[in-house]
Amino acid sequence: MSTVRFTLVAVGLFALTFIGISWANKGFPVMAMRAVPMKPDARLPTFEESVKQGLRKDWENSKTAQSDGDKERDKVRLELLQASIGYNLSPCDATMKKNLVEALTRYVNAWAAMAGCKSGVCTGNDKQLDIAAAAFQTPADVHVHKSLREALDKGGVGKDDFPKPIRNQVFMFTGMPFPEESACTAGRRAERWR
Question: Is residue 148 part of a domain?
Answer without folding.
Answer: yes
